[in-house]
Amino acid sequence: MGRKWNNIKEKKASKDANTSRIYAKFGLEIYVAAKKGEPNPESNGALKFVLERAKTYNVPKAIIDRAIEKAKGSSDEQYFELRYEGFGPAGTMIIVDALTNNVNRTAPEVRSAFNKAGGNMGVSGSVAYMFDQTAVIGVEGKSLDEVMEIMLEADVDVNDIVEEDESVMVYAAPDQFNAVQEAFKAAGVTEFVVAEVTMLAQNFVTLPADSVPAFEKLIDALEDLEDVQQVYHNVEFE
User: What is stated as this protein's family in its record (predicted)?
Assistant: First the structure.
């Protein structure tokens, strides 16, 4: 599963290169999560999850606090969670998750991004069946054996534990996300290099060199869209 983490690192590095964009997206996601329930992570699981993710991207406390305070207001603005699926250059597979207050705006923008880069949007289910929703939690400063022992002692059900560069990655079912994190915290680990429930491709592909620029242009265009929160794909970068 190390190949999967390589792709997460690539995606995260790309996002980190534009902090204003990632902070804005997290601000919206935090607002929506807080608005759905109590604006308190201790009683709102969805909000707690988003805040855990935000920590791994170093989202400033001021942005988090502002989003939560906004959710406490009387605004009745409604957001919708949408998923689009499509194909990029050389038949690559892409999933786009969006959060929007205008469903009539989002689909045309996503479709245009696909078309301009030589891809095309597919119907619902055309791509997602080749991905698995997976919790991925990564730490530094622990060996593979230490992480295995932590998971065993906590009796957490995981899919795999992999050493990758200077990190150890734990892959688990989405419903085990909290259990994995709590096991780490009980062992004194409070910082995570990644803490996501993501869509991981079952099989990865390496693009021919002449298709790489168009693919990267497509991913950048999708991630730049205001309504797009996450972009997943099945491309492995060298």
Answer: Belongs to the TACO1 family. YeeN subfamily.
Domains of the chain and CATH, by start:
2-71 (1.10.10.200), 80-129+203-233 (3.30.70.980), 131-201 (3.30.70.980)
Cβ atoms of 147 and 163 closer than 8 Å: no
Whole-model pTM: value is: 0.88
Listing DSSP states for 154-204 in one string gives HT---SEEEEETTEEEEEE-GGGHHHHHHHHHHTT----SEEEEEEEESS-
pLDDT in tens, 34-72: 998 888 898 998 999 999 999 988 899 999 999 999 988
The sign one gets for the Cα dihedral 135, 141, 143, 147 is negative
Helical packing angle, 103-116 and 212-224, nearest 10°: 160
Secondary structure of residue 147 in the 3-state scheme? helix
